[in-house]
What does this fold into?
Amino acid sequence: MKIIPLSEGAFTIDKTKLFVPFNEEKDNLQHRPTGSLLVEVQPFVVITSKDILLLDTGLGFNDSVYSKMQLHANMEKEGIRPEEVTKVLMSHLHKDHAGGVSLNYDHTKLSFPNAAYYVQKRELDFALTKGAPSFIPEELAALQTSPQVHFLTDDEGVIDDYIFYKYTGAHSPYHQVYWIKEEGEIIFFGGDDAPQLQQMKIKYKTKYDFEAEKAMQLRKQWWEQGAKEGWKFLFYHDIKTPVY
It folds into this structure.
């Protein structure tokens, strides 16, 4: 399987939930509000023998050079057209993961016209009810009616015999994680339950997880199991180590 990180850049985020661009060469984290976290926003493409998979959809911002969605521009730089994506796997629907679900200039249309979208139904219901600042309902509205959407309602299951998903909660109330298994290789995408390599290695609770204790224990469990089974971890918010 081929893994392609699609970095949308580095940002700081504080209690306002706003993602403010951060230039590592010019900006100083100490000049940002107290408690600001430095994160990368980084969807992934995984190319398998069956599919071109997209794992989460980024912020939905525009690329200033190409005048199109940054997610689309990043994919096209890698030789992949948006029309070629066959499946979109959503871990959860916070705005930094789901901003690119629909077209940013027309939220009535999903941004990958030929893809099946896999979404946890309870997460969508929660997101539309909860709203801002963590969720942007207008960006998610197309998920409610599009025939492209496959709602996942079970706590765990299998998609096309090789993509395994499991409801976890932890970071958000209805978060889910994925394992992609093909020809003896296992890729694990933990979304924001497992966002950075450092969090896997060091046992600590975060302030921004819905169930911090559960998230911490899951990270420990996955790290140990992954080491034994040779998983490849994909880290959505890791500036230095997107794939480990």
Notes: The two ends are 14 Å apart (CA to CA). The domain at 2-234 is CATH 3.60.15.10 (Metallo-beta-lactamase; Chain A). DSSP finds six helices and 18 strands in the chain. The chain has a mean pLDDT of 95.
